[in-house]
C-alpha cells in the first residue's frame, strides 16, 4: 500500500513570479519603461587661467626683445595715427595680434596698472633663469644688487618688496617656484607696476640660484634677527645679494648655510621681528646709502 506523505513544499525559487506592474501612465513597451544605457560622467574641463596684463611701452618692448609673443596686444585707438603707427610696426612684423580698443577697454585690461596706451595680454609672466638674471645684472652696472625672496607667500608683501627693489635700483629679484607667491595681476597692482620693470627670476631650487650668483662674484647676505652682525655695520658695496625670509619662519636652514653673512636689523622695542616687506626695504636702502657717492 502506497504511503501518503506530505506534499513537497515549493521553494521560492520554483514559484512563478508575477509580472511587474508597468510605471503609471506608460505601456510596458514604452521606451522609458525599459532601462537605458548607463551614462558616463565626464567632469567639466577646468576654466582657463585669466590672461596676465603687461602694461606700458617699456615692459611690452621687453617682451618683443626677448622673443615672447602675447595672446594679443591692445593699443589705444588714437595711438596708430601718424608717426605712432611706426612704433607698432616691429610688433606686426613679429606676428603679434594687435587690436585697437577704446580707453575704457584698455583700462579694464590693465587691471589698475599704468599702461601708457599699450597692454599685452600673456598666459604667464616672463621669468628669467638664474643665468639670464646674472647676465642682465652684470650688463646694467658694476655693483648690481639682487634681492632673493625665500618663500614669501603673501601677494601684498611680494608686490611691496618688488616695488622697493625697483625703487632702489636693484638689478633683479629671485623667487622660488613652490611655496611662494607668484607674479600675478594682484602682485603687479601691489607693486604699483614695478614688477613689470624689474627682471624677475623663478627657480625650482633657490639654493641653486644662490650658488649661481655666488659663482658670478656676488656676496650673499641673509636678513636674520639671529645674525651675528648689524645691518648698519655690514659692508654691502659691490655685487651683493640680499636674502629675505618668509613671513612666518624667516630663512630656511639650507638657505642660511649659503649666505656669506647673516645680518640683523637692530630693534629697540618689544617686537621681535619686522614685516618681511619692511625688512626688505630697510636692507635695500641701506645698500643704496652705502653706494651713494661721497
Characteristic terms for this protein:
alpha/beta, Alpha/beta knot, 294 residues, single chain, seven-stranded parallel beta sheet, 30% helix, 2 domains, 60s Ribosomal Protein L30, Chain: A, four-stranded mixed beta sheet
Verbal overview:
The protein is α/β, with parallel strands linked by helices and 294 residues long. The protein has 2 domains: 71 residues, 2-Layer Sandwich (60s Ribosomal Protein L30, Chain: A); 162 residues, SPOUT methyltransferase, trefoil knot domain (Alpha/beta knot). 30% of the residues lie in helices and 16% in strands. The protein is built from 10 helices and 11 strands. The strands form 2 sheets. The chain has a 7-stranded parallel sheet, sandwiched between helices. Strands 1-4-2-3 form a 4-stranded mixed sheet. Helix 6 packs parallel to helix 10. The chain is globular, with a radius of gyration of 32 Å. The model has no long low-confidence stretch (mean pLDDT 84).
Number of helices: 10
**CATH architect. name of the largest domain:** 3-Layer(aba) Sandwich
| Domain module count | 2
Could you name the CATH class of the largest domain? Answer: Alpha Beta
Beta fraction of the residues?
A: 15-25%
Question: What is the H-and-E element order?
Answer: EHEHHEHEHEHEHEHEEEHEH
Please state the CA-atom Rg, rounded to the nearest Å: 32 Å
CATH superfamily of the largest domain: SPOUT methyltransferase, trefoil knot domain
Distance between the termini: 137 Å
Helix content: 25-40%
From the 3D structure, determine the CATH topology of the largest domain. Answer: Alpha/beta knot
Total strands: the figure is 11
Biggest β-sheet: strands ordered side by side in the sheet? 7-6-5-10-8-11-9
> What value does the average pLDDT take?
84
Q: How would you classify the helix and strand content by structural class?
A: alpha/beta
Shape: globular
The largest sheet, given as strand count, sense and whether it forms a barrel, is: 7 strands, parallel
Q: Which consecutive residue ranges, at least 5 long each, have pLDDT under 50?
A: none
